[in-house]
């Protein structure tokens, strides 16, 4: 049961297309796990549809349709040329996942958009932050947010840290808790700057989260800087 | 209760014909209808999200995707208006990203359609209430107080975030957020009626 969701304002920005790319990635991962929010998103899209229908129509360029059909014809010709072009030597079938045996089971059952993120970032580089926490930065085609996997071992405790920027965490596998509650698969958590928390993974399984962070996290405990997952972004 | 056959369903039928038979005449009718609306959504007396040239460029991009994606249009899931809207939104995100992309942004090959994903639901239980919500929404929109519909228009048509709207209108962010929430509450009520 998913108990934590993006608020309506954030969902509306997502549906309207103004939510930044990094944050939208987190919302999208949540939507793929949360039927309730997906329904809300469709309602919000209906607002877009209604506004489109009621727009004040504007005359488009007179040759607009002809131009478009020209483009489509050209594409079709190209496709045909490729068909009739030199026949390629049939390649031997490539095993779909050559390294399936070494595949990380925690990455097996992820929302589609996260799966795509994994394959576009292969091989994932895991950085050991502490005995409990490993993280892997993910390139997503933007630089406003730090997007990363956070992976906490069974029962692992993460150093207490606060947040200097907004951070969204989406639980993808397993669950963790902090002073405020327990978070399970699909849960979407927004931390505001200044929030301090100390996540602990539940005992039964490893926990994998997607985190989207606006600004570097600073660890507050003694020697905390040693375990700061985003150490390299610490301002000097 | 008998549901009056509404005009919008015609657009859905045309879309289905384009998807199934690549019917160019059906596509032309869709173009004549939607192209001026797409342009008006981004460039009109009320909205100037794009300049006229960029709006024309967007029309081309959106309509070419409508043609390509028509085979995946499912009239039981969304109305033609909503479906075209989602394609247009994704196109706009793409266009703005292309223009604003900074050199130092990391290279990722996630596409807009990966994040704003419209593939059908795999969980069938959800189909339960995907009824013609849009008509109710349209009626609800017309009855909103102007200050509420105004923020919705800014959000959707001008593509502005809540903080941008707050800065532009000189309103506290909290006020913008609560206007949006009040508007949604009313629309939700008209949906459940």
UniProtKB/TrEMBL annotation, chain A:
Residues 124-211 form the ChrR-like cupin domain. Residues 74-103 are annotated as: Disordered. Residues 81-91 have a biased composition (Acidic residues). InterPro entries: Anti-sigma_ChrR, Anti_sigma_zinc_sf, ChrR-like_cupin_dom, RmlC-like_jellyroll, RmlC_Cupin_sf. It holds the Pfam family Cupin_7. It comes from the Bacteria. CDD domains: cupin_ChrR. This is Anti-sigma-E factor ChrR. The gene is chrR.
TrEMBL record, chain B:
SUPFAM superfamilies: Sigma2 domain of RNA polymerase sigma factors (SSF88946), Sigma3 and sigma4 domains of RNA polymerase sigma factors (SSF88659). Residues 30-102 form the RNA polymerase sigma-70 region domain. Residues 137-187 form the RNA polymerase sigma factor 70 region 4 type domain. InterPro entries: RNA_pol_sigma-70-like, RNA_pol_sigma-70_dom, RNA_pol_sigma70_r2, RNA_pol_sigma70_r4_t2, RNA_pol_sigma_r2, RNA_pol_sigma_r3/r4-like, WH-like_DNA-bd_sf. The keyword Nuclease does not apply. Keywords: Sigma factor, Transcription, Transcription regulation. Gene3D superfamilies: 1.10.1740.10, Winged helix-like DNA-binding domain superfamily/Winged helix DNA-binding domain. Belongs to the sigma-70 factor family. ECF subfamily. This is ECF RNA polymerase sigma factor RpoE. It comes from Microbulbifer aestuariivivens. The lineage of its organism: Bacteria, Pseudomonadati, Pseudomonadota, Gammaproteobacteria, Cellvibrionales. The gene is rpoE_2.
